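Work Package 3 (structural annotation) set out to generate three-dimensional models for the target panel prioritized at the project kickoff. During this period the team completed the workflow that converts sequence records into discrete structure tokens, so that structures can be stored uniformly alongside our sequence database. As a representative example, we reproduce one entry of 306 residues exactly as it appears in the project archive.
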Amino acid sequence: MTDDELAHGIERFIAHATGATAVRVTDLRRLTGGASRETWSLDAAIERDGGSIETLPLILQRDVRGAPKELTRPMEFQLMKAAFDEGVPAPEPLWVGDDLIGAGESFFVRRVDGETLPRRLLREDIYAPARAALPEQLGRLLAQIHAIPVEKHALTQLPAPPVGVSPAAFEVDRYEQIFRMIAPEPHPVFELAFRWLRKHPVIAAPSATPRTLVHGDFRIGNVLFGPEGLRVMLDWELAHIGDPMEDMGFICVRSWRFGGPKPVGGIGDREPFFAAYESKGGAERDPVEGRVWGGFSKPRRGGICL
């Protein structure tokens, strides 16, 4: 599909979704990054009865054919709508459709300007206030995500461990199975990591921590920020039901520090992040669970890289 064909398809879809008399797409460009889907930025001038014109800054996300998916695009759209409706800093979802423009499952959200590149956050002077503010902002954001009511927003179809199975055991089993499918050759460090994880009671027994919505990819790099700090949280396609400590461990993995000296995304210490999380109603952190989830996040990230 050429860019012109995509633009015309978008115009037809938005006209149908909004009842507009005419739609004109401008500044359509594909953004870099992302392996499981394409991301496009555009402006849509929407003309309605009476001649009034509203220009919307939009992001289109659509499937890459053949790429693996954790969630369908409609399910991801529904999840982001739940987050937005609950006041979580998330993109505002506008329209979704199955094969809406002849390109697989796709959806539109309102575009928010900002930066996502971690190296700029960590190194550029303009983002010094963001570096100071983000650890506590992220702690409060994570508590908001974990508080999203799953049943209220019909999110019970999200991936979840079976009743009676520890979320930690479920995730370790899942990622070890993926690892063994994609890497039949020896990887001793992975073997040691999975063996270490299975020694801990956290893995074997159901956690006392209540199950919640888990973002699943909560890290620097998926945060859209400005000089003042957090604007919105991106990339919800790995969300599932599980143990909230999983998100708290993942953001502290060394891979997500991008060379920064501090454990929370390279920019913050653990205690202010955890304190902000608990102050917003998040579950009290269990240091043992936190250590195990931090340990799990490393082979999980390594498996994704493989």
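Residues 128-146 form the longest helix (19 residues).
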